[in-house]
Amino acid sequence: xxxxxxxxxxxxxxxxxxxxxxxxxxxxxxxxxxxxxxxxxxxxxxxxxxxxxxxxxxxxxxxxxxxxxxxxxxxxxxxxxxxxxxxxxxxxxxxxxxxxxxxxxxxxxxxxxxxxxxxxxxxxxxxxxxxxxxxxxxxxxxxxxxxxxxxxxxxxxxxxxxxxxxxxxxxxxxxxxxxxxxxxxxxxxxxxxxxxxxxxxxxxxxxxxxxxxxxxxxxxxxxxxxxxxxxxxxxxxxxxxxxxxxxxxxxxxxxxxxxxxxxxxxxxxxxxxxxxxxxxxxxxxxxxxxxxxxxxxxxxxxxxxxxxxxxxxxxxxxxxxxxxxxxxxxxxxxxxxxxxxxxxxxxxxxxxxxxxxxxxxxxxxxxxxxxxxxxxxxxxxxxxxxxxxxxxxxxxxxxxxxxxxxxxxxxxxxxxxxxxxxxxxxxxxxxxxxxxxxxxxxxxxxxxxxxxxxxx
Length: 456
Hints:
With 456 residues, the protein is mainly alpha-helical. The chain contains 18 helices and six strands. It has three domains: 7-106, Fumarase C, Chain B, domain 1 (Orthogonal Bundle), CATH 1.10.275; 111-206 and 217-359, Fumarase/aspartase (Central domain) (Fumarase C, Chain A, domain 2), CATH 1.20.200.10; 363-455, Ribonucleotide Reductase Protein R1, domain 1, CATH 1.10.40.
């Protein structure tokens, strides 16, 4: 059946190119399961409310179950002429059970139908993404636990700043991912209200039971304004905003993994499973996965801008422009899921080159701040201590020495307050473990944090 279900008003057939141009079935067919889920609940509600006979509702539900089986068995041919997933399923339903199938649309519009389909679909995808986020958090925590003694250089401006525990560095990314999870859970609560029953824009004259429908479909409640119900795409924009922030975090971590796996840093080795070689240079092992995740961040940003631009000038209520909401949303979902899945596995299999990290941490005068703090504890104002250490570092540069290599006499040339106990403060371990406050890089602080995370 390819005759338009809305064709009564028209005397001429739709132009073939217009038909193809306006159809969405090529991409919205992924909503089939949710369209059928919503329609089955809606049919049951129509029967319960006496809007159609219970027997008719049962016929419709049986027909929809059969269509679901056909689609999942690959025995359903989607038609561009029928425009979208809703019309394809409804047309097939009428073919299967006769004119009774046409009663399914009583009191319903494609406007509220697609709104509920997308929410049902996105809700399931969010739950899956939350699982992926949890797995990535677990990978970061496991890497941190397994490498508690590894010291690395911490950087600001990509210049050596202070020594850190590698575990502490990894847990900073865990913080980012935890915030991403929190944002997504907030969104799930906010958008889990049901728009079905809003009709085209003004509601319906039939005595439908929206609250019962919402309960059957797992929604926390119903939308409160029929106009907003069919014209709202805030939830899709919010999801893409969440995704943009998440991908930014993954891109930052990708950049570090790319740097760390280079010969110049040589801090880590990524598993061969997540790298590729060069077609001309046999020695190459390219970090393609983090590079590609870093690159895919741009398309997610683009999808967010696409949705914002799509919605920015639309008058109420529904407009055909809103058909363009699905491709950016679907692409963002696919990109986020793929990136998270591969990242969690890659982090889990990553090998740490602790000796190289330690050597790098010892370069670049990374314990200079500890000398300044030492002088402050001896009574010197911090600004003066800063100047003392600055001159000390300049002397080290000129003589080719590092701070721990200076003799006591050399230290005392810059401040007589410095005594023999200075050497208890300028080793990498002393520098790291001195920072014991909550959120610091000391081993005991990191161990406390790991213990806390196990309880959450």
